[in-house]
Amino acid sequence: MEYADLVSPFLARPDTLVLEALIRDASTALNGKSNGTANGRTNGKANGKANGSSNGNTKGKTDHEMDDAETITLLNDINDIKSKEFEPTIFTMFDVDLNGKSALHRYLIQPYVRWASKAVRRDTDIVFLTHILTYMFTSVPSAIFLYFRFSWWHAGIHALMTLFYAGPFTLMLHNHIHNNGVLASQYAWFDQIFPYILEPLMGHTWDSYYYHHVKHHHVEGNGPDDLSSTVRYQRDELLHFLHYLFRFMLLVWIELPTYFLRKGRPAPALRVFFSEFCSYALFYQLAKWKFHATLFVFIIPLLQMRIAMMIGNWGQHAFVDDVEPESAFRSSITLIDVTSNRHCFNDGYHTSHHLNPRRHWRDHPVALLKAKNQYAGGRALVFANIDYLMITTRLLMKDYDYLARRLVPIGEQIGMSLTEIADMLRTKTRRFTEEDIKRKFMGQ
């Protein structure tokens, strides 16, 4: 297997560190040497010792020359404001050298960072404020303008802008709902208000993501009672996916409140039904007033978002082990790619997220590396240079060879041929019958 193809030059630095560590392990095992080499960009010597010990001194070494303990130290330092290695995230499209000497750095970037670091809850999270301000000063005025001076070219640009924003916004919102906010306490009022302004503009109905994801999905964990569960579907069949998609789009408004009632939780049932009803009522009244503006500002984003979320969830939970389907290691996956992690706040570390839903997004890479033996023992799946959209697309094409080439082998997967990997992946997309569900989820 050519590992060089797995390492994109556009990966965030923590992703590159983790991916090179995993590739180093696979190469070492295959070569039978303690200092095995990997192809291409990952051909630095592994300085690892059998017990993984290290004094944490990385001075004079490039990133790909460090052993695991040194890499873990560096990843922790990158997140530690007291360390000279600390790197806040300011933008998603590119990295910024805070020590730059240009006029742009002195008069714009550095003053912004000084102010923004006091406005966010964690110094690493300046990027959240960057995104909030971007959306407030682009999406909001654009939407208002469409209602008072509609034009088709503006409507088209607005729709494309919203599509571009939708992923990063949703994953920022994901961090917001899991941690009850992202801004510092002095901005708590705005921290609670901005989701209600931006959610409908980005394709979310009010509070639906919170109730479906936090209060429902993470409770059920893709099990049989999860309304977005994949286990009853053959995950490489287009008709099964379309059933999954349209059931969610047409029925989630009533199925989610019904789920809460069935579980004896009337309060969230009433709240989510009320929020959904108010959202649709708003769209209806605005459409009666200005239909074309409402179509592009609210309705098209809603359709785009719900399709994208189901494509994403299908990819996140397409591979479910038939022996231990309730294991987070065996019912979710990890992606080390640019789209999921650089642009969408480490959404690719889905297994890590299910292991600890409140883990901070910047802590996922180091958490994976620390627990790599558990990942290997749990037969977890780690892919690189592929996002959830392409996972779903390749599955529906039944292109297991492509998926096999994107797998980063860990544990017993190391040494498997591409054909063996493809066959292994194929076993994890089979639908569960009701008898299977009773036996494997309910212990009957």
Concise summary:
The chain is mainly α and 444 residues long.
SSE arrangement, N to C: HHHHHHHHHHHEHHHHEHHHH
Termini separation comes to: 42 Å
Q: Within the largest sheet, what's the order of strands? A: 1-2
The best one-word shape is globular
pLDDT below 50 for ≥5 consecutive residues: which ranges?
A: 33-56
How much helix, percentage-wise, in residues?
55-70%
Assembly state of the chains shown: single chain
Write up what this structure looks like.
By secondary structure, the chain is mainly α. Helix content is 59%, strand content 2%. It contains 19 helices and two strands. It has helices at residues 13-31, 68-79, 103-119, 126-148, 152-179, 188-202, 208-220, 238-262, 266-289, 291-316, 328-331, 338-342, 350-355, 364-370, 372-377, 388-396, 400-405, 418-427, 434-440, and strands at residues 333-336, 381-384. The protein has a two-stranded parallel sheet with strand order 1-2. The radius of gyration is 23 Å and the shape is globular.
